[in-house]
Amino acid sequence: MNKITILFLLLSISCFGQKNPEIEKPIRNLFLAMKNADTDLLKSVFTENAILQTITKEGMVKSDSIPDFISSVSKFPKGDLDEQITIEAVHTDGNLASVFTPYSFYLKGKLSHCGANSFQLVKQNNEWKIQYIIDTRRKENCKEIK
């Protein structure tokens, strides 16, 4: 290989292999807030008009309100809700980011279900916030992420 090809490969690996902690922060805080039943932290990760949806196994899209979601999290003791994720892809363009995260969800320490989350984030006032989450949920073929 010539020097230009090697340089291009090294630059490609360093550019595409990097994580973006600023974009990941609200996502990681979402799951930290769920695990700690911390409603203040949970509220802080979302935009004012965020959307939360789930695709059912029948292929229907079910919507939930963010306030209802926060209220349901508040009813669990600290440690009962533990969603473990793997950040597989982050795509950005200016103030928009898209993040894909397979997950395993543990309820009271037991694997409950798994699936994938798709996040759309926006940068507002120099801070990334979650605008939209849609996820899948299944009980079969789940892998432990812990």
TrEMBL record:
InterPro entries registered for this protein in UniProt: FrzH/put_lumazine-bd, NTF2-like_dom_sf
PROSITE patterns, A to Z: PROKAR_LIPOPROTEIN
The protein, known as: Nuclear transport factor 2 family protein
UniProt organism field: Chryseobacterium lactis
